[in-house]
Amino acid sequence: MSYNYPIDEVFWSKEEIIDVVNFYSLVEKAYEDSVKKEDLLIAYTRFKQIVPSKSEEKQLGTKFEKESGYSFYRTVKQAKESRSGQLIRLKK
Fold it and tell me: Are 30 and 87 a contacting pair, CB within 8 Å?
């Protein structure tokens, strides 16, 4: 990984930063390997607790995708549409 995660160090606590980074890493894992649907959706739920604003989520998603090439939106959409227990895999 040769890019930076979009993090709000001013307003987020250390615990919140860790939880957001966990979500980012699961999105990466969905592209590079696979991730359990439930793990991803739990991390996304926590991410939404930290970032409840849709516009802020879109801004962070856009920054993350520009840096990494990985899409929050497509990853979460696939997870929501998949069956329970399914592994989530995406292609760049």
Answer: no
> In terms of Cα–Cα distance, which of 38, 39, 76 is closest to 57?
76
Which residues touch 74 (CB under 8 Å, ≥6 apart)? 90
Q: State pTM to two decimals.
A: 0.93
CA distance 83 to 85: 6
Answer yes or no: are the C-beta atoms of 88 and 39 closer than 8 Å.
no
* Residue in the structure block whose two tokens are 């993090």: 7
The answer on pLDDT for 79 being more than 80 is yes
DSSP 8-state secondary structure symbol assigned to residue 10: T
Give the pLDDT band of residue 12 (cuts 50, 70, 90). Answer: very high
Residue 3, pLDDT > 80, answer: no
State the Cα–Cα distance between residues 5 and 3, nearest whole angstrom: 7
Query: If phi over 0 gives left and psi between -120 and 50 gives alpha, with beta otherwise, what is residue 85?
Result: left
